[in-house]
Design goal:
The protein is of the alpha/beta class. The protein has two domains: about 280 residues, Crotonobetainyl-coa:carnitine coa-transferase, domain 1 (Rossmann fold, 3-Layer(aba) Sandwich), CATH 3.40.50.10540; about 80 residues, formyl-coa transferase, domain 3. The chain has 18 helices and 14 strands. The strands form four sheets. A six-stranded parallel beta sheet has the order 6-2-1-7-8-9, with helices on both faces. Strand 10 and strand 11 form a beta hairpin. Helix 6 crosses helix 8.
């Protein structure tokens, strides 16, 4: 099934946010063409470890080695080389944009406009184009020109202030959450813009901001109330308002969710803590918030002698949501993810055997009408020059050699 099988995307993207958006659209069947600088390409291509004929290595050993980071972010995306600073390169880009539905880019704000390839430039040759820019702070505002990778965005957004232990330092979330969630917002915004185009024939410009994305996520919680009441902003692995959280058992950790008076009662009864349940000191929600640390200590003392299996069985019997905290190796080898397609073996383009220990992210939603297309692995730099330029610009091999010799492709 290819929901976007009739859609062509030009992608001028580097690092993570833009490439992840490119790959997401390719997963839905779009013809995604990544435009990279000749001889250089996406900087991530030069960040190890690498996968190649000699297996996984820390340093590039052969010309066929590809960065594992690049492989994870580039499935199904075609690679062409094109010097956008060259007048002929700009003309070729605009000629391809005439035949495309979407342009996406995540260069520094204003870079594409300075090249003569911003939204206004592309819209002149293709008024129906949907043009999406992703940037750390967006295209407008006082911060737009600040350098911005995910670390800086997590810091400036305030999300680090709410992450970490209560008495510990601000803590970065362990995945590049700004780089990964913003492209998802952008993807369904693009789908919305495509729907508008179906209705009106008009394209539009989309300005996606990583810092705005994190702000919308943070304030899905009542953080303004937390601040007003003087409650700790950082709660670590625990809830700010009840005994929900992490507990250490004899052979590992479990995490439980309480979140309601009914579950609080069930938890106390399962642990033989009727005395706590009946104690007027803890009678109301407000009382339990006030004394939450001593309640957690009591629960820890009662649970701490169990194994994880015993604790999970005990709490499961009274419908308390509970799970053991698993390690990354356990998750990576769990057949659940293979069976559902959310984690898959990693392949280099054209290879018939997977990369040793290599895992790529699949798509976490299944469709009743059938699977999304299987995608080729990430491409070598310029691998699709002949295909794309022949198909879209009618350039033959002689013309391509000339363009390459001139540094255009």
């Amino acid at each position: 099934m290819k929901p976007l099988g009739d859609i062509r995307v030009l992608s001028v993207t580097v690092f993570l946010a833009g490439p992840f958006l490119s790959m997401t659209l390719a997963r839905f069947g779009a013809d995604v063409i990544k435009v990279e600088m000749p001889e250089v390409g996406d900087p991530v291509r030069n960040v190890g470890p690498y996968a190649g004929p000699n297996g996984v290595t820390s340093d590039r050993e052969t010309e066929e080695d590809l960065s594992i980071r690049f492989l994870k972010r580039s499935e199904g995306v075609k690679s062409v080389t094109l010097n956008l600073k060259d007048p002929e390169g700009r003309r070729m880009f605009l000629d391809m944009a005439k035949q495309s539905d979407i342009v996406i880019e995540n260069l520094s704000p204003g870079s594409m406009t300075r090249l003569g390839l911003g939204y206004a430039d592309v819209a002149k040759v293709n008024p129906g184009i949907i043009y999406c820019s992703i940037a750390g702070y967006g295209q407008t505002g006082p911060y737009k020109d600040l350098p911005a990778h995910d670390h800086q965005i997590q810091a400036m957004s305030g999300i680090m202030d709410m992450n970490g232990d209560t008495n510990g330092p601000p803590t970065r979330i362990g995945v590049f959450v700004g780089d990964l969630v913003t492209p998802l917002y952008a993807a369904y915004s693009i789908l919305g813009a495509l729907r508008v185009k179906e209705q009106t024939g008009e394209g539009q410009y989309l300005d996606a901001s990583m810092i705005d994305t994190l702000a919308t996520m943070m304030f899905m919680e009542p953080m303004e109330h937390v601040l007003h009441e003087g409650l700790p902003v950082r709660a670590g692995n625990n809830s700010r308002s009840d005994v929900t959280g992490l507990y250490r058992l004899t052979d590992g950790d479990i995490i439980i969710t309480v979140g309601s008076k009914v579950r609080w009662g069930r938890l106390c009864k399962a642990l033989g803590a009727e005395d706590v349940l009946e104690n007027p000191r803890y009678a109301t929600d407000g009382d339990r918030v006030t004394h939450v640390e001593e309640l957690r200590a009591d629960i820890q003392a009662r649970l701490g002698g169990f194994t994880c299996a015993e604790g999970i069985d005990l709490l499961g019997q009274v419908d308390i949501p509970v799970a053991r905290v698993r390690s990354l190796p356990e998750v990576m080898t769990d057949d659940h993810f293979r069976d559902r397609g959310s984690l898959k073996p990693m392949y280099r383009q054209g290879a018939t055997t997977p990369v040793e220990r290599g895992v790529v992210s699949g798509f976490p939603v299944t469709f009743s009408d059938g699977p999304l297309p299987e995608l080729e692995g990430g491409a070598m730099l310029g691998h699709h020059n002949e295909d794309v330029y022949g198909r879209l610009l009618n350039l033959d091999s002689t013309a391509l050699v000339e363009l390459k010799n001139r540094g255009v492709i």
